[in-house]
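Exam revision sheet. Question 4 asks you to relate a sequence to its structure. Input first:
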Amino acid sequence: MSKKKRLQKKLTREERRQLRKKKRRKRIIVLVIELIILAVLGVVAYGVFKLDKLDFNILDQNKLDVYKDTGPYTNIALFGLDSREGELEGGVQSDTIMIASINNETSDVKLVSVYRDTLLQQADGTYEKANSAYAKGGPEEAISLLNRNFDLDIQNYASVNFNALIDVIDALGGIEIDIQEEELEYINGYITEIVNVTGKESLGVYEAGTQTLNGVQATAYARIRYTAGNDFKRTERQRTVLLKVIEKAKQASFSTLNKIVDDVFPQVSTSFSSIELLGFASNAMNYNIVDTSGFPFEVTTSENVQNHSGSYVVPIDFSENVVQLHAYLFGEEEYITSDTVQKIDDDIVYLTGIDSGTEAIQSDY
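Answer key, structure tokens:
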């Protein structure tokens, strides 16, 4: 008789019953664990399938002019494109330029709008408006412009066109915006333009006050630039719309978010991998936008830039503006700018005649 049979013979009926019960429980636990693993794999597979709708664009890291590591922060360039034909990777100007800085230790996020008409150094060493870099060299050149001029370490981006914003807002059922009396004329002008360009239908906005705007109306609101504050105020409107969208998306149902993914992802270009985006998505509910601002902080405008025509946003004491940016985003109160930034400062003074003694215009939007 084997050792196993001799052992079983010594066991009482109750002991054998308890042993079989333990074995069944173990099999059930293993089965549950397997089901959980399969469910997780299913969610990941579904997420990867959905993310495959995005336009993924691998960047040449050697062309990004990364300056130095900013520590526990992930900095991302966000571009809203004046794209009428769906172009995402160059050939069109970036109508909106934002830097999203995520504190990975706290999940706090700060947004900075870079005024699109800001006089900045381009990849070839010349000086032009900030929004021209995307048109010349796509996201690589636009990111390198931000890194070179601001001593940053941005390595990834996301770009969207007008239609994407319209579709997101419509899927969310609109967003609430407080429309001012002076904005009515301009919002309706942009609504007409957007309807003509996109073929989407929308009524106008006929009265001031807080109201729910659809996608076309909200996008038109974000484009207004001819009221008091001009382009400075416009970037504030853009950040307001973005915050309202994020706030409402956090409360949206799965079916609504699924529709947004299906409708909008084909209109988005990004350098992030599927795995990186899934990582962001898993932490999405923890992210908290704690503050927004516009850059440069101290500015004026000028139509007298040497060998240039048109009106430019000109930083007053460019190097000091970069110091303030690092203090704002990363808490670096005694930041010392790079030699490149100091040269850009000298060049801007030479081209414009605007130095640290120039009186700033109000740009705190």
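Marking note for examiners. Residues 3-51 form one domain.
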